[in-house]
Amino acid sequence: MLGHDIRNLANSLVAFLQLVRLGQLDASRPEFSELLGLSESNVTELLRMVNALLDVYKMEEGRLEADPQVANLADLAKKSVQQLAAEARARGVALSVETGDLSVFADETLMVRVLTNLLANAVKHTPSGGSARVEAQMSDDPRWVTVRVCDTGPGIPTVDAAHVFDRFFQTAGGRSRGGSGLGLAFCKLAVELHGGTIRVANPGETGAIVELTLPVAEVRAGVAQ
Length: 225
Fold this sequence. Notes:
This protein has helices at residues 2-21, 32-60, 73-91, 108-125, 158-161, 172-176, 183-193, 217-224; strands at residues 69-72, 94-98, 103-106, 131-138, 144-151, 198-200, 209-215. By secondary structure, the chain is of the alpha+beta class.
């Protein structure tokens, strides 16, 4: 299935480039901008698939380690939003960050990729005109920050909620929208590498909410010292 999805993405890009090379499609055509944006999204999705595949296996073999540092959560979320800006714009989905001034003790590279994967999933499943956002607040337990990635899509069925973080698992709708079934598995392993948890907070309800916990910077940084 992964090979099939990669071929589809690559074939779509090749078809676009061939049309341009043959002079059948140029910037003066009204559909050029839309197809260019779609091609960029396809390349980005292909890279996410390959990176997630490699990292999932590295983590399971104990070969990928986190290098946690004090990081501003809003900065991490904004980096993810920037990476997805073109894709979200092409799909007509608005992105926003509502994290306040919170800091976590986390590996910046891994957590940006976690948020990027979660937002990419939200954008993919949200109809045009909808929105996706990253929000955060202190948990009841002062050692943790609760981060949520929310969208206005159809939501995640209750029967699927317990399995969406399994390798290669996809909902029926997920297959129709493409993807490897590895992005959420990577997110789970990366969050657990930081000692946190991740779950679907509202299974069966409209508008998916994926909730994860990360260590508060002040607490964990103090321990590390």
